[in-house]
Records
---
Amino acid sequence: MLSPESDPRAPARTMDCARGCFRSVVTDLEMTAPPEFGSLSPPAPGVTVQPWADPPVDEYLTLFRQVGDPWLWYGRLRASRADIADLLQHPGHEVWRLWHGPSVAGLCELDRRLPGETEIAYFGLVPNFIGRGLGGYFLRTMLAEAWRGEVRRVWLHTCTEDHPDALTVYQRIGFRPYQSREEWVRDPRLDGLLPRHAGPHVKIPEAP
């Protein structure tokens, strides 16, 4: 799998340099019945998926940034520590980790706070583990978990800052796009939430 900065499929972005914003297209996807998962055997010895009960805020944010910085994930970074702690302790919010031996290889968050629905709020791999055949297993495992209980709908969203294959992968596994929208995003690198080298596939919208 190509890195964000080297992937030629990364789309050009419309920039508003005066406001420090870039245009993002967000696509919402859903499934209303569980897919046929097939085998959920791990792709390699020592690969496991485990829930992370009551994660410490600092440890959680470290992993969130490991996974999300290349894709400009900023949602949690604009929240207060108190709000993050409340979310992590909420019984309707689950944090899961993908392990490869002793190393954490991925992060997934399931939001069950709406009755009958599960949102896959965040899903991704630590960069060093991309391209090792772990993502499909992790996603199928988390989908099986998302459908646990009396669930009528599982949904998520992706955007133009995600990997170029993300939308295709989600549709291939059974998600159906049901709406898209345009958002103007204040670049988190300009606000110091992310380092300037994060998300190299997206130009920083600033005056030359």
Note: The beta strands are 15-16, 21-31, 47-51, 93-100, 103-111, 117-125, 153-159, 176-186.
---
Amino acid sequence: MTPEHRVFSTAELRAGGMTRARISTATRLGYLIRARRGFYVDATTPDIVVRAVRVGGRLTCLSLLALMGVFVLRNDKVHIHLLRTASRMRSPHSRRVRLESRRTRGVRLHWLPLIDEVPREATCVAVIDALAHAVLCQAPRAAIATLDSALHLGHVTEAGLADVFRALPAKYAVLRSLVDGRAESGPETLMRLMLRALGCHVELQIEFDGIARVDLLVDGWLVIECDSKEFHQTWEQQVKDRNRDLALAARGYVTLRLTAGQIMYRDEEVLAAVKGLLATR
């Protein structure tokens, strides 16, 4: 079996030397998963990918990006791309879709033509297609955070981003100039965009000699750190953070340290805190 997740038809498996009995045994023993009639996937294929294959589609959008480790603010559905000529679901308004509504509950279907065609046996769309779908499925700030994350992680290049925006409706072009791959986390992007909406001058990943690099420097005096549990949960790290804050204060900088959860889910409180600090200057 190939280490990459792909779909195998019964005909392909038999051409590779497997009999129907062996295919049945491999499925029963858990080496293969029968995704749908006549099509199988490797047993290591993630469940969410199998679900896409079951309805005759490919995983895309927020579901695929989250699986790749790209930042996604919120997602409670399985995002699946289907070709308009798909035999199982030809149109989002077809009678077949309505009949299969129970099977597709909790699913978001995507029907746009693909930017980057993938092989017939692929279980997922290309990254640039997933990103284009993610822009359409999210609010602007969340979409920019997802694009920042994909760019920072190296899942897409600047040229790839250009392809994404060429495929999107013209009204989304305004978002392109706001994408910045230097952002190291989704909450950092969300915070940067909130500050920009307030008219602040924001610098990313600023290095202070002898101290450290900070996430955001606002109007030349306010340092904002966007902390995640992953990197700041130990007491040793918290002590290190406070020593940095102390050193910055000695140079006249004010530090506002926020958690990722506060930025993502308590944004009104965060906004009020920032406005309160800005009012002091």
Note: Confidence is low (pLDDT under 50) at residues 90-102.
---
Amino acid sequence: MFKRLLILGLFAVAALPVLAQDYPKFELGGDFSYVRANTTFKNQCSGCTIEGITIPVGSTSQSADLLGGKGEIAYNFNHIVGMVADFGGYDVTGLPKGTGAAATLFTYMFGPRFTYRGSERFQPFGEFLVGGSHISASVSSSGTGIAGVPYYFGTSGNSFALALGGGFDVKVAQHVAIRLFEGDWFMTRFNSTLNSAGRPTAGTQNNFRLAAGIQFRF
């Protein structure tokens, strides 16, 4: 009898850290995501030309809708503070059909997340992420192109990226939560200005990012 009680006691002591842990150490998530990209193109170069055409000095703004998804992994230091690695991939929608135009955006950001776990079921959070983004765009013809010759034009660029925002998760099972909403101010710094010397320089793009999906907790 004493031996059995001793064994039960050892199991109880070993389980105390687990019972005391009221938060998951690791979280893995997958989300559907939408980005509203806003870009202002500026030309500060008087007399600059492209293909012999003079570019007027001034600025013009354009917006685009991007659809895709993102995944993340988070490590929680305690029940409030965690560190997040966030990776996303998006396609630009609404491009002219029949032109072979395509554009994609990839993001990779890291930073702290602060979660309020006052309720076991409903848990809001805020986060601040920094990292980078990569955009690529192309125009191609798989059939008859210019003068009967198939063509392909492509370009790409890299940029600093920042996301500031938050959202809330709802726990639906012991190791599963649904991310009902996540919203971020998503800033990038792609080249969008032609300076007075005719050289492309970085501009600030103030974008918005929304996401919803599922989280697995361990």
Note: Confidence is low (pLDDT under 50) at residues 2-20.
